[in-house]
Amino acid sequence: MTVFFSQLINGLSLGSIYALIALGYSMVYGIILLLNFAHGDVIMVGAYMSWFVMNQLGLGPVTAVCATIITCTLLGVVIEKIAYTPLRSAPRISLLITAIGVSFFLEYTAELILGSGAKVIPAYYTNQTFHLGKVPLGLTSIITLVVTVLSMLVLTFLVQKTKLGKAMRAVSEDMDAARLMGINVNSTISFTFAVGSALAGIGSVLYCCSYPQATPTMGSMLGLKAFVAAVLGGIGSIPGAMIGGIAIGLCECFVSAIGLSAWKDAVTFAILIIVLLVKPTGFLGRKVQEKV
Amino acid sequence: MKKMITRRQFMAAAGVVAAASALTACGGSSASTAASSAAGSTAGSAAASGSTIKVGVLGPMTGDVSVYGLAVINGASLYMKQVNADGGVNGKQLEIITMDEQGDATQAVTCFTKMCDQGITALVGDVTTTPTLAVAAESADYNMPMVTASATAEAVTYDAETDTVNANVFRATFTDPFQGIKMADYAYKKLGYTKAAVIFLKGADYNEGLAENFVTEFESLGGTVVDQESYSEGDVDFKTQLTTILGKGPEVVFCPNYYQDVGQILAQAESVGLNVPFLGGDGWDGLEGYATADQLKDAYFCANYAKGSNPDFENAYKAEYGEEYPNGFAPLGYDAAMTVVYGIKAAEEQGLEAGSDEYKQAVIDAIAGGTIEGITGTFTFDEHHNPVKQTAILCFDGATPVLKEMF
């Protein structure tokens, strides 16, 4: 039973990271109907930033966390401005291919500059293990869960209660109508990218707490899993991304826990297929109004 | 140099084929410091020159796996140069014929046949498993004595299906099963552990080979393997498997994987509270910097060669090539060359003619029954032509691997 709860915690913390990344996918898709495949690679750049600040510059973890989140945020906005804005009126397939191109560009640039070997990211803090009854509870898991839930609450508040959030919702519903209403569509889209990428930055830090290595291709599978999470939860929906991420994390952990680790990815993707067959919009993807 | 050409011209008169092949060293380089004084006495002999003994060195010098190939080739060449500097074998110099097979099996066979045309009498090579298998198959036709420094696959020297040993092929490195068995012995007999768990990468020969043999040996010794966990290529999350292992309560975990994965596993083991020592194989070579001293407490791994265990070799390598020996393949190359030269010495003592069939057979017989005092340990060969030797067991001083003992 102890092992069961430990695995539950492992699954929740892995799922939380997927959820944070899935949010970025979901928000961007919600607003310009683009599957931003470069999203996973933003996380990779963030991980290298943490490594660079702590290992190369020798600065503290707080600086590293700030630098990582700021880098990811700026990178997201820059990618949007350079690669996606000029294609705003182009067919959607062009945008999709551009996104894949940006993804490869980031991966191979990182490989060119930093090599294909893994870089070890120094620990941000000293890990401690608490005990909840008999269940060991790592500080990393606690931080991951708390930060994810907080991010989710802040994001929900931002989208539902602020003026910018209202603008985002309006743009996602009907871009032209929003423009007619006097909403600055370009800055709203940029803001969406910034928020999504900032979440990727947070995800990057949490990821590096649990898996302290950075490689040029670390973002691709991670991004793919998060994408699955977003689709599973209903792409475009904030709570959907959260549910989808947690579901995938738990699923992976329990499939591994019963000794089928080799089948982990197969089971995850099989679940995606089944859910999409039964409910093509994902768990929470039904209501159009909920879109961000 | 002038004298050499004169000699070759003389040979051309005696045996046209031999001379032609000696002059056209295509695709490779021919390094020789042949003592010209010996030329006169045996210049009339046909296929191979009487004054030098030609030894082929084959490996990838360019391409993806060149980092291993160059290490082996440099290590092997270093030994033969040292032998030449000490007066050679039986007064004859070794002529090293090096060729680049670019990591390709077809290319390797082509290079090998070229070398045979040039009259080599023994081969150090190949380096990686696939080309080595191809060359081993080809070399049987020539009954060419062949010592690979680093190919670990069992099939290189022994075909399990037909139960036949490749009579002319030997290797200097230990095999994958051997490492698993050694670490099981070490864990049970030396460290006194009785409950072990295993975590390994599924679908990779190296990792599975070590893990399976560890489990079999550990259980046959009387120990219990409480859990066997695996993961897939590209996985970064090992917490689930490690939590399962934690629940089974082993005293030690055998982790026969490559160092990047090992770094992740050790860090995550710490975070799920699995604080038992870990053991590994030579894939741990390079782990420095990927794990902390805390995570490596009481950890051990085995390797062919421990850095710092033979300063003479390491200094000689640096003096010859201007850089530190790059990895464990260089000392293995050195020992592979030593094995070949050991055989050649025996054949020379019998007064046979270099390059002849009897000569090759004498080299093979000598190696099969010989004892080689290499820098990776003193070894003999078993009935499958694998070296029987001690392995270096390394532990960690802080996070730096150091030689613990030979086992």
From TrEMBL, chain A:
GO BP term, example: L-alanine transport
Span of the signal peptide: none
Membrane-spanning parts: 12-38, 58-83, 95-115, 135-159, 180-207, 227-255, 267-285
Keyword S-adenosyl-L-methionine belongs to the record: no
Xref: Pfam families: BPD_transp_2
Subcellular localization, as worded in the UniProt entry: Cell membrane
InterPro entries linked: ABC_transp_permease (IPR001851), BCAA_transport_permease (IPR052157)
Family: Belongs to the binding-protein-dependent transport system permease family. LivHM subfamily.
Any single Gene Ontology cellular-component annotation: plasma membrane
Keyword Transmembrane: yes
Topology class, membrane: Multi-pass membrane protein
CDD domains the UniProt entry points to: TM_PBP1_LivH_like
Keywords tagged on the record: Amino-acid transport, Cell inner membrane, Cell membrane, Membrane, Transmembrane, Transmembrane helix, Transport
Protein name, UniProt field: Branched-chain amino acid ABC transporter permease
MF GO annotations: L-isoleucine transmembrane transporter activity; L-leucine transmembrane transporter activity; L-phenylalanine transmembrane transporter activity; L-valine transmembrane transporter activity
From TrEMBL, chain B:
GO BP annotations, alphabetical order: amino acid transport
Annotated Gene3D superfamilies: 3.40.50.2300
Gene assigned in the entry: braC
Alphabetic keyword roster: Amino-acid transport, Signal, Transport
Family the UniProt entry places it in: Belongs to the leucine-binding protein family.
Name used for this protein in its record: Branched-chain amino acid ABC transporter substrate-binding protein
Keyword Protease set for record: no
Native source organism of the sequence: Faecalibacterium prausnitzii
Signal peptide positions on this chain: 1-34
InterPro entries: BCAA_transport, Leu-bd, Leu_Ile_Val-bd, Peripla_BP_I, TAT_signal
Domain Leucine-binding protein residue range list: 52-393
